[in-house]
């Protein structure tokens, strides 16, 4: 299951966002370190395709979406890399996630205090980025000291690792993060093994006032985008309002549509955040449609049918014979497997078939 860690300074809207995502009731009072332990919530991935397939198949048990696990992690403050505030807990919890959602406060509200005084998204972004880099620097330098000793004795692998770690140090010193130094799968594995925070994929969630949603948050968000690009050129900034999202969760589907329209937006920020997480990690969705259940599954883009079989069950992969596949919209258009098969729309594919987003797969296996 995809795990996303929600991080940021205290009082930026992390727990309000988490509550809206999960309806888990995590505390969201107006003081630093309200979130002492990480809260974990499981959220369904929004996907209209699943409901449309369910309407066609009408399975006995209904439909099961793909899920994302969100971690609401204690607020970070300046000095967290040295253990200030709840820094040690923050750093330990964030190492558990697949990717980081950095929430940045882009709204002014005199009733919600800011741990650093005035609201300044660029400064806040830089503080969190610097603390992550400093925490990583301490880990990398310890590893580098150890590897240099064996590298001097002529061990080629350690010489190569030392050279790579020195590049990582340079990137961290420049404020860019370890992810910009990774060139090979071996580099990725090493930094994951070391628990390096700035090697993790990251996206930014700009928490704006409700009345600025339609305009994308205005100049303050654009300034944040510029700052983000300076550190991580390809990172995405998702604009949302935590308060607005919390309001949406209290409404019926019809009322939600009306509120979205009145705010000048077409899709809840929470949906956009989850979809951005999928894009960030290069994920896609395939479906299985049967008499008992219609289900969505998550897979890395470019994966094969053999790998998709393993996502469902190890027996499917071990006894893989072939898979039958059809695009989800073609199946919906025909109304049934039988009709689609009669028209020759269902293809038989081998283990090396590259699964496409939206494929409906039926596995043939024997164990």
SSE layout and pairing:
Layout: E1 2-7, H1 14-22, E2 39-44, H2 48-57, E3 63-64, E4 67-72, H3 87-94, E5 99-105, H4 121-151, H5 156-173, H6 185-194, E6 202-207, H7 219-231, E7 237-240, H8 242-248, H9 253-263, H10 269-281, E8 283-289, E9 294-300, H11 305-312, H12 314-318, E10 320-327, H13 328-334, H14 337-342, E11 347-349, E12 359-365
Parallel strand pairs: 1-4, 1-5, 3-9, 5-6, 6-7
Antiparallel strand pairs: 2-4, 8-9, 10-11, 10-12
Helix pairs in contact: 1-8, 2-13, 4-5, 4-7
Features:
single chain, 367 residues, alpha/beta, six-stranded mixed sheet, three-stranded mixed sheet, 19% strand
Computed CA radius of gyration, to the nearest angstrom:
23 Å
The largest beta-sheet arranges its strands as 2-4-1-5-6-7
Mean pLDDT: 85
| Main beta sheet strand tally, sense and closure | 6 strands, mixed
Number of discrete helical segments: 14
Overall strand count: 12
> Class by helix and strand content?
alpha/beta
Low-confidence stretches: 24-37, 84-88
Instruction: Please state the overall shape, judged from the principal axes of the Cα atoms.
Output: flat
Summarize the structure.
This protein has 367 residues and is α/β, with parallel strands linked by helices. The protein is 43% helix and 19% strand. It has 14 helices and 12 strands.
Can you walk through the features of this model?
- With 367 residues, the protein is an alpha/beta fold.
- 43% of the residues lie in helices and 19% in strands.
- It has helices at 14-22, 48-57, 87-94, 121-151, 156-173, 185-194, 219-231, 242-248, 253-263, 269-281, 305-312, 314-318, 328-334, 337-342, and strands at residues 2-7, 39-44, 63-64, 67-72, 99-105, 202-207, 237-240, 283-289, 294-300, 320-327, 347-349, 359-365.
- It has a six-stranded mixed sheet, sandwiched between helices.
- Helix 2 packs parallel to helix 13, helix 4 (121-151) packs antiparallel against helix 5 (156-173) and helix 4 runs parallel beside helix 7 (219-231).
- The longest helix is centred in the middle third of the chain and has 31 residues, at 121-151.
């Amino acid at each position: 299951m995809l795990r996303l860690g929600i991080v940021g300074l205290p009082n930026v809207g992390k727990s309000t966002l988490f509550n809206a995502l999960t309806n888990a009731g995590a505390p969201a009072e107006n003081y630093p370190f309200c979130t002492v332990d990480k809260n974990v919530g499981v959220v369904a991935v929004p996907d209209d395709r699943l409901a449309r397939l369910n309407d066609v198949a009408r399975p006995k048990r209904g439909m099961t979406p793909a899920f994302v696990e969100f971690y609401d992690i204690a607020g970070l403050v300046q000095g967290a890399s040295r253990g200030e505030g709840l820094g040690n807990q923050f750093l330990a919890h964030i190492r558990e996630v697949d990717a980081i959602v950095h929430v940045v406060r882009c709204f002014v509200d005199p009733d919600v205090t800011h741990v650093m005084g005035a609201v300044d998204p660029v400064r806040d972004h830089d503080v969190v980025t610097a603390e992550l880099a400093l925490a990583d620097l301490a880990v990398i330098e310890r590893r580098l000291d150890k590897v240099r000793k064996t590298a001097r004795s002529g061990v080629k692998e350690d010489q190569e690792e030392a050279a790579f770690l020195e590049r990582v140090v340079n990137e961290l010193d420049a404020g860019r993060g370890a992810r910009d130094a990774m060139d090979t799968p071996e580099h990725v594995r090493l930094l994951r093994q070391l628990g390096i925070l700035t090697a993790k994929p990251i996206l930014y969630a700009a928490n704006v006032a409700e009345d600025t949603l339609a305009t994308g948050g205005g100049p303050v968000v654009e300034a944040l985008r510029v700052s983000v690009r300076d550190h991580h050129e390809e990172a995405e900034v998702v604009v949302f309002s935590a308060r607005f999202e919390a309001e949406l969760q209290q409404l019926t589907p019809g009322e939600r549509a009306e509120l979205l329209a009145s705010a000048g937006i077409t899709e809840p920020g929470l949906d956009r955040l989850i979809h951005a997480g999928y894009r960030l990690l290069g994920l896609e969705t395939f479906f299985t449609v049967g008499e008992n259940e219609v289900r969505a599954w998550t897979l890395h883009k470019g994966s094969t049918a053999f790998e998709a079989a393993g996502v469902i069950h190890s027996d499917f992969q071990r006894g893989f014979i072939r898979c039958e596949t059809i695009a989800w919209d073609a199946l919906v258009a025909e109304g049934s497997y039988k009709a689609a098969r009669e028209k020759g729309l269902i293809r038989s594919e081998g283990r090396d078939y590259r699964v496409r987003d939206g494929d409906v797969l039926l596995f043939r296996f024997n164990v």
